[in-house]
Amino acid sequence: MLEARLGRAEAMLDIIALEARYARAWDSGDGNAWADVFTEDGVFEIAAVGDRPPLMVAGRDQLSDFCREFTAKFTGVHVPGLPLLEIEGDEATGHLHFQFVAIGRIAANHSMSRTACGQYDVRYRRTETGWRMLHRLEKAFSSTRSEFFDF
Amino acid sequence: MLEARLGRAEAMLDIIALEARYARAWDSGDGNAWADVFTEDGVFEIAAVGDRPPLMVAGRDQLSDFCREFTAKFTGVHVPGLPLLEIEGDEATGHLHFQFVAIGRIAANHSMSRTACGQYDVRYRRTETGWRMLHRLEKAFSSTRSEFFDF
Amino acid sequence: MLEARLGRAEAMLDIIALEARYARAWDSGDGNAWADVFTEDGVFEIAAVGDRPPLMVAGRDQLSDFCREFTAKFTGVHVPGLPLLEIEGDEATGHLHFQFVAIGRIAANHSMSRTACGQYDVRYRRTETGWRMLHRLEKAFSSTRSEFFDF
């Protein structure tokens, strides 16, 4: 009984750490560390908003490539807010908001800075090596962009 | 002894989830879900800052209306920071900082975007259905506003 | 066994509270409260970035003075994101991201506003009065500054 209650508290704390690891891995451009936050068959999705198409990346190899290619051009800092977590045995769901500040070097004479915020809806699964993300949906709410043309 | 310690940890995690629920409910414009974060007689206050008058909303019906009316015009994303919580039996206090990014449609040809940050001081009470907010004071520190006049 | 697991969960929650206390103490300009977040011989460092020199402040008296002198000119709000914590007995490490919004009165007719974000790498130690910071390294990623010359 105590153990079950403690297990739930530990799951919440482990998922908080997993969310922090997600932010750190992406922001340091470490594709493998970022992919490792997901399950083997984990999926990262970005919802279509405004005139932007949706995006879906599935599986650790693709996740790792996606992170590496993106962060080669755009580096930034995620600030993850407090999560709303619901634990059900070895499965969990989460909802949290974030801010992301980034700079990008689009070409030799074209750079930009961007501030975005939005929300994540996440499904987690407990694996033999700890909690991982099964599915993560990112939905941007705002994106403020400054571009610089260095002629 | 172990149970008392575990109870305190659970209270902290439940209040973290309550704070996340507050953000999610407001940002999805769900007046009833937002009011349900408070006790039946819960109070939401905004402190007077600069030339802005204070505001006070008390009781679930009024809280629900307040959220619905505000979010009909202004939609946004709250990013809640880590809270400083102090638990005393079935009562608790919290202090946390936040950022809020919003867009508003003030009239057909007048819209705006706004970024604000500030702090919350909160008193929580444990009820039969879990932790709720008895009193929440919001104090804005900054508000950056861009207005658009679409003539 | 259960007690060791609970101890780890409590350590994580206490460090989350310590991080919130760090933000609150600085943002309220309370030098002593801010210094008290560190151990007696605690060190706060800011990494060199861009053309900015590094900075190091060691020991509670110096930490308290540093906070008081800075906040006499610049007041602001820190929003700390979720931390990645690793606990090892009475020692711990943490990594978290933050946003900081500030206004400054540089001179009677010169003021500014600033939004910064970045990351912290922290080493914590459990003392007789609870967890404290042994070493905190702040690394800014971005700093957006608006200056106002009131002639």
Q: Main traits of this protein?
A:
elongated; homotrimer; alpha+beta; 7 strands; seven-stranded mixed sheet; 30% helix; 53% strand; 151 residues; Nuclear Transport Factor 2, Chain: A
Task: Put the structure in a nutshell.
Chain A is α+β, with helices and mostly antiparallel strands. Helices cover 30% and strands 53% of the residues of chain A.
Structure description:
Three copies of one chain form a homotrimer. By secondary structure, chain A is an alpha+beta fold. The first copy, chain A, has a single domain, classed as Nuclear Transport Factor 2, Chain: A, CATH 3.10.450.50. Chain A is built from three helices and seven strands. In chain A, strands 1, 2, 3, 4, 5, 6 and 7 form a seven-stranded mixed β-sheet that branches. The longest helix of chain A has 26 residues. The model of chain A has no long low-confidence stretch (mean pLDDT 96).
Q: Tell me how many strands of chain A there are.
A: 7
C-alpha geometry of chain A = elongated
And the CATH topology of chain A?
Nuclear Transport Factor 2, Chain: A
Query: If helices are DSSP runs of H or I spanning 4 or more residues, what is the number of helices of chain A?
Result: 3
Q: Give the domain tally of chain A.
A: 1
Name of the CATH class of chain A: Alpha Beta
